[in-house]
Amino acid sequence: MIKVSKRDMILDSIIQAYLSDNAPIGSSELGSRMAMSIPASTIRVYFKKLSDEGAITQFHVSGGRIPTAATMRDYWRARLNFDETLDIANPNLLKLLSDKFEIYAMIFESKTQTLNQVLNLNNRFLILSFSEDEIALKFNSKVEKFLSNLIGIDLDRLELTCMQVGLNELRNKIAELKRTKIRFLENEKIALEIFGESFKNALSPSFEMVFDSNLVFFGENYLGMKLGVNYEGKEAKMLCAGSIYNDYERFLNNLKEAA
């Protein structure tokens, strides 16, 4: 059995209190909430230590404490598990929970598509044939030759390639195609809050390209999650974003309990 130090117990209790109440907490109130009986005087000693470490802070000299942004980033790295595929059968519940926890959420179909063929239509258009969809481009002999060498590439890698070599027309067409695969979108205002003028980029499945892992951080105060989900019985992906002070664990657990 792993022994947990008083320092870690107190810090975890501060985090849990802030996730629950979104308000600073003092030593006496924290002591009354903890399972282990620790005197308020001892908690104040640890408050000082944790403040010196940069793990907690306070808005006012006489006010309670809250976890710092750095603490919350470490907390979510340790707590969130993305190994399981999440079943979501009720879009209304997802909307309710997204609003309750103030989380931006988007779900889109994630079936892999590969480029099967590049057709030249009378030197006027190029038709790119994928596993399930097609994209039409204005004819360009250099683009035709380039794409013909990419037969078998998947749609995501093709989009990234377009960014790298400047094929903006195809990149935009891929983004349009991906937007038709969106099955759920909620709390766009939160995306605006996080990303400002570039928030529209977060409203497309191409937003997934900024995720180099299942958990990413945007600046100091926001995080993003990428999850594999079964949405209404179909394989999909869910991208979420919001403040690091939102309770993502409860959000996900509520969805799991409803499955």
TrEMBL record:
GO terms for molecular function: DNA binding. Keywords: Coiled coil, Repressor, Stress response, Transcription, Transcription regulation. The keyword Transcription regulation applies. It comes from the Bacteria. Residues 160-187 form a coiled coil. One of its GO terms (biological process) is negative regulation of DNA-templated transcription. InterPro entries: HrcA, WH-like_DNA-bd_sf, WH_DNA-bd_sf. This is Heat-inducible transcription repressor. It comes from Campylobacter showae RM3277.
